[in-house]
């Protein structure tokens, strides 16, 4: 059931919302599309501009009682507050803000209609001001968020409880529904599988944040997030292409070999600078004189050999020298000379090992620099430098965090307790700092997440910034994360790079400071009680 109110009768009252009508048309087309849609045309009811609260509720009750498997209720329009408790009301054509309780639809009535539906899964999507209050209303009967009151219900709202939604003048759709339609029509970028209901929240949140719009909210009960909301279109058969001569591939541009070998050693006062890994220089690539493989072969077992030479050579040198001095003769001089030769050989071997180490690192740097600009290998090397600089700064402000061994990759994680690990991740949705909750047991992990989510406002106040609460119902783990969506590690300039390092450092240290001890305590509480010893009296 798709409901929208775009026109209002009260003179001087609520503003008209022309985008709402477009929302209904486009959503119906997306949900009933023959290739990607999930509903049949005859099972999709559209209610445009309901006249009165009674008309709205009659149609809603009819739709909720007819649904057997999946019930989806979408509303777009003005949301207003009314009554002594400032409850949420959904508006209709006759709505008068001054008489909200008599001319609008109380959300409590909508809630009761949805609760009474025989449908196995119930989906509620609200695109209106103060729509976040619906989440509190739907879970108000629960003692804790770990136990959702309305089983099998998924709620998605365009704003938080005390924020207004956005409808930008001149745009075809309201802001929130425009992003929802983008996913319903085009899918999630980089993903070739069906889109599940639980997949909508994160890209919606990132997209709204990029535009500076209010933060969406969601609440999932049971496995409601597993419902498919967009199917992958069937692929048409493609006839094999005719054989044609392919033009020779252009030679990749070869960047200069200036990747820093020791990025944590400051080369200047402003050392938080991104490494340069791209260039338009077209010079031919240089080949190392000694390959890294041959160096590894030459150095195999070298450290063990060096230790043996150091022990034996030093012992012979000492024994020969003492013997020659004590006897006043030189018949032990040969022993002393042998020890000296072996000791000198030790220093030669150490020199070889140092040279090998230098040439090996140089070989790796040259191979990395020969990657075409923008390849995954070259970008991961830049990410490694970024991670190392973050942990170098964390060492000074959060000594309790032990830096891991950093490798060229899109993620760097470190364990910090029985509740999971922390991670810095370059994801499709932006750079992410997260606590990845995974106790090894699904029920325990979700219970810990739900306890923290229940007091999320207090947690975010203590952190000093907002985080996304990702329950990940299809996964054993859950995630508490902060996103930096406007940072590109491969193109960032000096100030942008420095700001991102500072941002990541502050988020990691704050998450660890605020939640580390509480998470450990929750894990301890979740442990099964030990059985009492038998009474031997």
UniProtKB/TrEMBL annotation:
Transmembrane segments: 306-330, 336-355
UniProt domain DUF4268: residue ranges: 421-515
InterPro entries: Caspase-like_dom_sf (IPR029030), DUF4268 (IPR025364), Pept_C14_caspase (IPR011600)
GO molecular function: cysteine-type endopeptidase activity
Disordered: annotated segments: 235-285
Composition-biased stretches (Pro residues): 247-258
Keywords for this protein: Membrane, Transmembrane, Transmembrane helix
Domain Peptidase C14 caspase, residue spans: 2-185
GO biological process, one term: proteolysis
NCBIfam families documented for this protein: caspase_w_EACC1 (NF047832)
The name this protein goes by in its record: DUF4268 domain-containing protein
Source species: Amycolatopsis iheyensis
Organismal lineage: Bacteria, Bacillati, Actinomycetota, Actinomycetes, Pseudonocardiales
């Amino acid at each position: 059931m798709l409901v929208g109110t775009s026109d209002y009768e009260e003179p001087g009252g609520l503003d008209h919302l022309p985008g709402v009508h477009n929302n209904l048309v486009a959503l119906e087309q997306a949900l009933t599309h023959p290739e990607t849609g999930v509903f049949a045309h005859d099972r999709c009811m559209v209610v445009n501009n309901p006249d009165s609260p009674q008309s709205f509720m009659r149609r809603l009750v009819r739709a909720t009682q007819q649904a057997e498997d999946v019930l989806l209720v979408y509303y777009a329009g003005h949301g207003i507050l009314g009554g002594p408790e400032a409850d949420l009301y959904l508006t209709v054509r006759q709505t008068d803000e001054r008489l909200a309780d008599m001319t609008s639809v109380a959300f409590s009535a909508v809630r009761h209609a949805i609760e009474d539906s025989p449908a196995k899964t119930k989906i509620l999507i609200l695109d209106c001001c103060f729509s976040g209050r619906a989440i509190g209303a739907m879970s108000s009967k629960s003692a804790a968020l770990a136990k959702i009151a309305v089983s099998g219900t998924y709620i998605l709202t365009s704003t938080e409880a005390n924020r207004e939604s956005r409808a930008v003048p001149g745009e075809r759709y309201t802001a929130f529904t425009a992003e929802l339609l983008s996913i319903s029509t085009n899918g999630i970028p980089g993903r070739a599988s069906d889109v599940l209901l639980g997949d909508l929240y994160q890209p919606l949140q990132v997209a709204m944040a990029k535009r500076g719009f209010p933060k969406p909210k969601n609440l999932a009960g049971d496995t409601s997030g597993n419902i498919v909301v967009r199917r992958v279109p069937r692929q048409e058969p493609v006839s094999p292409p005719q054989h044609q001569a392919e033009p020779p591939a252009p030679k990749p541009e070869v960047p200069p070999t200036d990747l820093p070998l020791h990025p944590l050693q400051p080369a200047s006062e402003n050392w938080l600078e991104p490494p340069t890994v791209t260039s338009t220089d077209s010079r031919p690539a240089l080949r190392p004189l000694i390959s890294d493989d041959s160096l590894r072969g030459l150095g195999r077992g070298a450290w063990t050999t060096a230790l043996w030479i150091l022990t034996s050579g030093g012992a012979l040198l000492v024994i020969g020298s003492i013997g020659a001095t004590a006897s006043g003769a030189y018949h032990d001089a040969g022993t002393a000379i042998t020890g000296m030769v072996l000791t000198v050989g030790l220093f030669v071997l150490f020199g070889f090992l140092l040279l090998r180490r230098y040439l090996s690192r140089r070989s790796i740097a040259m191979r990395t620099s020969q990657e075409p600009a923008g390849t995954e290998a070259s970008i991961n090397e830049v990410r490694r430098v970024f991670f190392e600089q973050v942990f170098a700064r964390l060492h000074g402000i959060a000594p309790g965090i032990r830096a891991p061994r950093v490798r060229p990759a899109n993620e760097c994680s470190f364990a910090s307790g029985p509740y999971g690990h922390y991670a810095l991740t370059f994801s499709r949705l932006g750079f992410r700092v997260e606590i990845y909750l995974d106790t090894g047991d699904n029920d325990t992990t979700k219970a810990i997440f739900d306890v923290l989510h229940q007091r999320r406002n207090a947690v975010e106040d203590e952190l000093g910034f907002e985080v996304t609460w990702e329950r990940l119902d299809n996964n054993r783990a859950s995630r508490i994360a902060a996103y930096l969506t406007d940072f590109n590690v491969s193109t960032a300039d000096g100030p942008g790079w420095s700001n991102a390092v500072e941002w990541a450092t502050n988020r990691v240290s704050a998450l660890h400071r605020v939640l580390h001890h509480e998470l450990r305590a929750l894990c301890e509480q979740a442990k099964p009680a030990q059985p009492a010893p038998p009474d031997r009296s």
